[in-house]
Design goal:
The chain is an alpha+beta fold. It has helices at 10-14, 17-33, 35-48, 50-53, 58-78, 86-102, 106-125, 131-175, 179-202, 216-222, 224-228, 233-255, 257-280, 301-315, 329-336, 338-355, 379-395, 423-439; strands at residues 319-326, 361-364, 369-375, 398-400, 403-406, 410-416, 445-447. Helices cover 67% and strands 8% of the residues.
């Protein structure tokens, strides 16, 4: 963008070169001399806000974000608005996209920017210079911050709109899957849990009964079901019934077998009724799976992982990710041909889909890479699942038409959610762990 068409920078353009240089120098000196104080006040204000607390905590600010804001402020007062601002503009767009990814309300960011303006302006006003020079420096500051915020806000709105559309597409896609199979799978999971409770009761097994909320059915309700039937009153009814069973009915079963079993059966039947009602409302929509591997399309990763990170943060639950790469896949393609490569991809994907839980999400991440979101799984549990997948892939060679079976191995990177609200950090951690596994000789699992 040329100087003539750079919006909102009129004062920078029309002020004299001498005044512009003096104002820029004063801004840079004040910001650099007070960096830690400015950053501290910005995040103190953010964390004092009820909405802000939902996105950040003191640990995340101290360990990750403090340095980022310092760097942003230094760049802000170092950039030359009369020169090439292409890189500066691109970084503001990236910041806006990150805010959208974290779903941080834009008004919180704008409040923080207003605070920075005020704090820096106060320090400018304390300088031993004439009033005109003070006014010039403050106007230059305002134009700089407003210019940056316009780029951030435009990127925020654009990215948020795109993500809303993707979220809705994923929900509709989920509804368009094999509805009958999904319904029967969850009915079976519910009945398996209830039968296990009755078996324990009538066999006088005094062991602790797994709560319905912690069963495979409960996991499905909280994660996949919440996406498939977002906002559906029947889903709320099912969750309330699950709480009633776990908090009330199970104790009755132990105290009064006859009355407890009758109450349990009534609640289970109510859940089945609401479950049928939910699935009966499902309709066919566009496919959202990778046609070769039948894993989820990567375009839905932001919707799923962003939601799961938010849920893990709010509920203080574990969440882990596996990044998986097929070892020496290029060699397989070069030696055996691309058709054989496709067979290997399908073979590995089938093992992944058959090994994870119904509540987990398996994505085709890249050419020969897969990403698995393991809900409510600690790093240790994720490592065990990753090792189980690795072993199953190694044990079973891939079948290829008109060719001998091809031995396949995979490398797996494991990362656990540690509180950072940006899901990209979790992906990057898993990717780094995968790099460690591959550098360690491949055919192994490594944790971040």
């Amino acid at each position: 963008m040329t100087n003539a068409y750079r919006p909102g920078m009129n004062f920078w353009k029309h002020i004299s070169d001498e005044s512009r240089a003096a104002g820029s120098e004063r801004l840079a000196r004040i910001v650099k001399e007070n960096l830690d104080e400015l950053v501290g006040k910005f995040y103190d204000s953010f964390l004092a806000h009820e909405e802000g607390k939902a996105f950040l905590n003191h640990s995340v600010v101290t360990n990750r974000l403090h340095k980022s804001l310092r760097n942003w402020l230094i760049e802000l007062v170092s950039v030359d608005p009369m020169g090439d601002m292409t890189e500066f503009d691109a970084r503001q767009v990236k910041v806006g996209e990150v805010h959208a990814r974290l779903k941080i309300p834009n008004h919180l960011v704008m409040e923080g920017m207003t605070l920075l303006k005020s704090e820096i302006a106060i320090k400018i006003a304390e300088l031993d210079i004439d009033r005109r020079s003070i006014a010039e420096a403050i106007i230059l500051l305002d134009e700089l911050i407003d210019y940056a915020m316009r780029h951030m806000s435009a990127a925020f709105l654009s990215d948020t709109s795109r993500r809303i559309q993707t979220d809705e597409a994923f929900r509709l896609f989920s509804l368009g899957q094999d509805v009958h199979l999904e319904r029967e799978t969850q009915r079976a999971a519910l009945m398996e849990w209830s039968q296990q409770v009755l078996f324990n009761l009538f066999s006088n097994d005094c062991g602790e009964v797994t709560k319905l909320a912690n069963s495979p059915f409960g996991l499905w309700v909280r994660h996949r079901g919440a996406i498939l039937f977002q906002g559906a009153p029947q889903l709320d009814a099912i969750q309330n019934l699950m709480h009633t069973i776990d908090d009330d009915v199970l104790s009755k079963v132990s105290d009064d077998r006859t009355a407890g079993v009758a109450a349990l059966q009534v609640r289970i039947e109510e859940i089945k009724y609401h479950l049928n009602d939910l699935f009966n409302a499902a309709s066919n929509v566009e496919n959202g799976r990778d046609p070769l591997t039948r894993t989820l399309n990567r375009r839905f990763l932001a919707s799923v992982l962003g939601r799961e990170v938010g849920l893990a943060k709010r509920a203080n639950q574990p969440l882990s990710v596996l990044m998986i790469d097929i070892d020496h896949f290029k060699t397989i393609n070069d030696v055996h041909g691309h058709q054989a490569g496709d067979s290997v991809l399908s073979h590995v994907a089938e093992i992944l889909l058959n090994t994870v839980r119904p509540s987990d999400f398996v994505f085709r991440y890249g050419g020969e890479e897969f990403l698995i979101v393991l809900v409510e799984a600690t790093e240790e549990q994720a490592f065990v699942i990753g090792e189980r997948i690795r072993a199953r892939v190694e044990e079973k060679a891939a079948t290829v038409v008109d060719r001998p079976a091809i031995p396949v191995t995979i490398s797996v990177g494991v990362a656990a959610f540690e509180g950072h609200p940006d899901y990209q950090y979790l992906i990057n951690a898993a990717d780094n762990a995968l790099y460690v596994a591959k550098n360690g000789g491949r055919n192994r699992v490594a944790a971040a």
